[in-house]
Design brief:
Blueprint (H helix, E strand, L loop, with lengths): L2 E4 L5 H20 L9 E6 L2 H5 L1 H5 L4 E5 H9 L17 H17 L3 E4 L1 H4 L4 H7 L3 E2 L6 H10 L2 H13 L3 H15 L6
Parallel strand pairs: 1-2, 2-3, 3-4, 4-5
Helix pairs in contact: 7-9
Length: about 190
């Protein structure tokens, strides 16, 4: 069960050029009579705002999305988490980031393609109820975070997660989102709040 995922796509032209190369490789394999699966799913990372804004158009051309939150946050907020001069601005709780994620989920939903979230956000317990409430059903998390994330998901009610997302999307300041998500996590799984 092999899938192909193109990273750091910034435009429809990028995606189409990558797909042309993939088709050339398929033709070469056919000419050389090398067997391969003709039914490989092709997806892309969503890491830049231009893709999130046009998610509906991109969703017409791929089988799945994977939101790379580390890069999406960096490019949305112009804040590199490894640069001390601007790292204080880097946060997944920023309303612009939350709206970008929602755009991707809505665009994917229009086309019926799945969305996975990877990166730091998917392994941070306070974001899990929010992501689930936004419609994310697949999280790629670091191995050490799996038990906590599983515990949160098992303790979460879908309507509760949707209400958390709805409320968080109405907040205007990242600090307010952070405080709200921390409070909700404390209600859902108090033992995980540090």
């Amino acid at each position: 069960d092999v899938r192909i995922m193109f990273p750091l796509v910034a435009s429809l032209m990028d995606l189409r050029q990558a797909r042309l190369i993939l088709n050339d490789v398929r033709e070469d394999l056919t000419e050389q009579q090398i067997p391969f699966s003709t039914d490989v799913k092709v997806g892309m990372m969503v890491e830049v705002p231009s893709v999130a804004i046009l998610a509906d158009e991109f969703a017409r051309e791929v089988d799945f999305f994977s939101i790379g939150t580390n890069d999406l946050i960096q490019y949305t907020l112009a804040a590199d988490r490894s640069d001390p001069a601007v790292s204080k601005y880097y946060t997944g709780a920023d309303p612009a980031v939350l709206r970008m994620i929602r755009m991707v989920v809505v665009g994917a939903g229009h086309r019926g393609i799945p969305v996975t979230v990877c990166g730091q956000m998917s392994s941070e317990p306070r974001f899990v109820p929010l992501l689930v409430g936004l419609g994310i059903r697949n999280l790629s998390v670091t191995p050490h975070a799996i038990p906590e994330i599983k515990e949160i998901i098992c303790s979460l009610d879908m309507s509760q997660a949707e209400e958390i997302a709805r409320h968080a999307l109405q907040l205007e300041i990242a600090r307010d989102v952070e405080n709200y998500l921390r409070g909700e996590l404390k209600r859902i799984c108090p033992q995980l709040v540090k």
